[in-house]
Recover the amino acids of this structure.
């Protein structure tokens, strides 16, 4: 519980600082896409964020390995399909959960409110159906 709270505070602080200091939204999908679509002066901060996400996770796996003990029972092709559908949905919905949920909701963006509602609704439906058929 405490670790989740600390993580949430860090994400919120990061999103706030990026918006205030750089005028950018902390949407991970847009940040990663910008690495490939818009190389240029934004390359440094985009790369730093992606590198920080990867290295932070890697470091945490060594500092607190007990947080990473989980056995995936879902077959790899199903997880790959799910990942593809999530990626497709983020493009279709003009952003991901971090962009809409973490950054759009505090800015009272109607599009983000609708997108977050759809994310949550389909997430609940997916869990319900997965449990029903497993």
């Amino acid at each position: 519980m405490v670790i989740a709270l600390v993580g949430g505070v860090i994400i919120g602080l990061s999103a706030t600082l990026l918006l205030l200091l750089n005028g950018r939204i902390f949407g991970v999908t847009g940040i990663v896409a910008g690495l490939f679509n818009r190389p240029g002066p934004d390359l440094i901060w985009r790369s730093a964020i992606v590198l920080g996400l990867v290295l932070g996770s890697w470091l945490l796996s060594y500092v607190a390995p007990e947080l990473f003990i989980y056995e995936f029972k879902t077959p790899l092709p199903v997880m790959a399909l799910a990942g593809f559908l999530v990626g497709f949905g983020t493009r279709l919905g003009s952003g991901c959960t971090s962009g809409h949920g973490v950054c759009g909701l505090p800015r009272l963006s109607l599009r983000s409110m609708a997108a977050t509602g759809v994310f949550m609704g389909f997430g609940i439906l997916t869990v319900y159906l997965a449990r029903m058929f497993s």
Summary: The chain has six helices and no strands. The chain has one domain: 1-133.
